[in-house]
Amino acid sequence: MKNSYKAAIVAALAMATVSAANAAGSYTANDLLVGFTTQSGNDLIYDLGSESSVLNGTASYAGLDSLLTSTYGSSLSGVSWGVIGNGVNSGTVRTAYTTTVQGVVPNTYIGSTAFSKLNNAAGTLANNNFTSASVAGDSATVAASLAYSWNTETLNGTLTSDYVNAYENPNVTGATSADFSQVNNDGSDPTLLGDFSLGSNGTSDALTFNPVPEPTTLGLLGGAGVLLLAFRNKLGRKQA
Amino acid sequence: MNTYKAILAAALGLSVIGAAQAGNVYITGSTAMRGVVYNAMTNAGTVFKSEPAITAVAASGKESGATYMAFQGVLVGATGSGLTTVKCYWTGSEAGIADVAKVQTEGFLADSDVNTAAGTITDLSAFSTSPDSAVVNLCLADNAQTYSRTTTPVITGAKVGIVTFKWLRNPGVWTGANVTDQQIRAALGGACPIGLFTGANDDTSFVYVEGRDTSSGTRVNALGDSGYGIFSQVEQVYLSSGVMVDFDSNGTYETVSGFSSGGSLAGSLNASTVTATDKTSNGGTGFSVIAYLGYNDAKTALNGTPAAVELTYDGVPFSTANVENGTYNFWGNEYVYKASSVDAEAGLVYTDLTSISKGIDTIFDQLSAIPLDLMHASRPGPLGDPSHN
C-alpha cells in the first residue's frame, strides 16, 4: 500500500518535472529582469517583480543573494549586470526601462516597431529561461555561450534581434551603481527613475534600488532646510 | 492462494502488454519529411522487404500528408518473416528531438485500428479515443540536435540528406515576388510597415509572418537562415479563412507560437486579406502575410484557391540546381535520430533509413529532399551560410 502510494507520488512528480521542462516561459509586461554575467560559465537571470513594486520599495528580491553567491562566489567585482523591462506592447506610447552607466542617458527610440524589438529581446530571455509566465523571484542560470543568455542578449550578441543590437548595452560591471531610466517610444527624453546599486558580495542585500526623490519630497526637504536655517539664524541672534 | 492469483494476474497482464507492444516501432519528428517517409515506407526494399501488407493513415486529404501513419510488413535486414509495425506521428522536428532525447511518450494509431485496416483509414475519430501511447524510438529532424532546444541528453543520429523550404505570400496587399533576409527579420519581429517591402514611403498597412510553433524544424531553419535567431522571440499572426485569430487570447492578435503543422499553415495562405481587418493594435483595412513552408506544404498552398505566391529568396528562385549549388540557401540538413535504448526492430529501422545510397535517400524526390551525394554545397547548420564543396 505504502509502495503504491510512493509510486504514485513518484509518477506524479516525474510528470510535473517533465511538464515544467517542456513548458515555454513568457515575459510579463512591466516586470524588470536583472541579469549577471562574467561572459563565461553561467549567467544568472532574475525577475525583480513589476516596475511599480521596485519603485515603491515593496519588491523583496527574495533569494537573489544566495543565487549570486552560489553562481559567482563571494566576489561580484568582475560581474557585469543590468536591468531591463518593458511595458505593455500596445497603445500610443510604449515604455521600456533600462539601466545605464551613471550619468549616461539611454538612447531614445521611435515607433512601435522599435519597441517590439526591445520587447522581443526581453521575451527571448523569458521564453527560453523560464518555464511559465514570469513572476517576481523567477530565476535561471544559463550558460553564457547560449543564444538566450544574458551575455549574448545584452553584451556580446551578433544578431539584430539581440537586445544589445536592437537597443543598447544595459550593463555596468562590479560593485557599483547604475542609473535606471524610463524610455518611451515617442522619442521623448528618457526619465531618470533612480539607481540600482550592487554590493561587493551577494551575502546580504546585494542589489538595492534608490528612487529619485519625488518633487513633493524634495519640496518638503527644501522647506525643512529653510526652517532649520531660519531657526539657526534666530538662535544666533539671541546668543549675540 | 491470493498471492498465487495476484502473481498469475500480473503475469497475464505483463504478457498482454508484451504482446500489444511487440513488433512496433515508433517515429515522430519532421512534418516537412512526412511525405518522404511515406514513400520510403511504401517502397519495397527501403524499409520493408516488400510493399507493406497494411498501410494505415489518418488523413482527410492526401495520404502522404497525414499526421498519423502506420505500416506493417517484414523489415529489410530481418532474419525471419515476423511482422513489424512502424507507427509515425509527425509532431515537428524540435518535438521529435525532445521525444527521443528525453524518452518521451506520444500517442500513435492504435493496434486495433492498424490491424483491422484493409487499406486506408481516413476517419480521424476512429483512433483518437484510444491511441497507442508509447515511448518514441526514432525521429526525423530538419536540424541537428546541436541547434535544437533539446541539446542534452545527446542522442545518436545520422545526416541523411537535405530538406528544402520556401517563402510564400498570401494574396494580400503586398504583391511582390521576392523577399530578403532584412525584410524577413523585420516581419518576424512583428508588424512590418509595407513600405519596407515596396520601397514606397508607406506605413498604412503591414506585412506579418505566419509561421509554425516552437516544435517545428522548419521554424528553426527559417529563423536561422534569415539571421533572426533560432531562439529569438517572434511575433507571428495566425489566420483562419483570412481572419486574424487571437491565438493567445490576450487581445494582441500576435503570438510567439504558431501552427502545429505545415499543412494547416499552407491552407491558411489561400485567402485574400486585401480588405480584411487588421485586428492588431495597428488597425486598418488590408494587410499581407508571408510564411515559411516545407516544399510539399508550399505546393499545397500554391495549388490552393486563391493561390499563394512563391517568393524568390534574396533574389534567387528555388530550383534543385540552386539548392545543390548553394545559391538558394533556404534548406536544412535532415537527420534521423534514435533513442539511447532501442530494441532490435527499432535499430533495424534506423539502419534501413540511414544507410546512405541504400536508405531513405534513394527515394528522395530531389525537390522536397535531396540526397547528399548530389549536393555541391554544404553547411554546418541553419546559422551558417552554404559553402561550395
How does this model look, in words?
The complex is a heterodimer of chains A (240) and B (389). With 240 residues, chain A is an alpha+beta fold. Chain A contains seven helices and nine strands, in the order αββααββαβααββββα. Chain B starts with a helix and ends with a strand. Chain B has helices spanning 2-21, 34-42, 93-101, 111-116, 125-128, 181-188, 195-198, 217-225, 262-268, 295-303, 320-324, 344-354; strands at residues 24-29, 54-58, 68-73, 84-89, 105-108, 132-135, 138-141, 156-169, 178-179, 192-193, 206-210, 239-240, 243-244, 288-294, 309-313, 331-338, 369-370, 377-378, 387-388. Chain B is globular and about 70 Å long. Chains A and B meet through helix 1 and helix 4 of A and helix 6 and strand 10 of B.
Number of discrete helical segments of chain A: 7
Q: In the residues of chain A, how many domains can be counted?
A: 1
Strand percentage of chain B? 15-25%
How many β-strands of chain A, per DSSP?
A: 9
**Helix tally of chain B?**
12
Descriptive terms for the model:
heterodimer; A: 240 residues; alpha+beta; nine-stranded antiparallel beta sheet; B: 389 residues; D-Maltodextrin-Binding Protein, domain 2; two-stranded antiparallel ribbon; 19 strands; globular
What is the element layout, followed by pairings?
The complex is a heterodimer of chains A (240) and B (389).
Chain A (H helix, E strand, L loop, with lengths): L1 H21 L8 E7 L4 E9 H5 L8 H9 L7 E7 L8 E7 L10 H18 L9 E5 L6 H7 L6 H4 L5 E2 L3 E8 L6 E8 L8 E5 L3 H25 L1
Chain B lengths: L1 H20 L2 E6 L4 H9 L11 E5 L9 E6 L10 E6 L3 H9 L3 E4 L2 H6 L8 H4 L3 E4 L2 E4 L14 E14 L8 E2 L1 H8 L3 E2 L1 H4 L7 E5 L6 H9 L13 E2 L2 E2 L17 H7 L19 E7 H9 L5 E5 L6 H5 L6 E8 L5 H11 L14 E2 L6 E2 L8 E2 L1
Parallel strand pairs in B: 1-4, 1-7, 9-15, 11-14
Antiparallel strand pairs in B: 2-3, 3-4, 5-6, 7-16, 8-14, 8-15, 8-16, 8-17, 10-11, 12-13, 18-19
Helix pairs in contact in B: 9-10
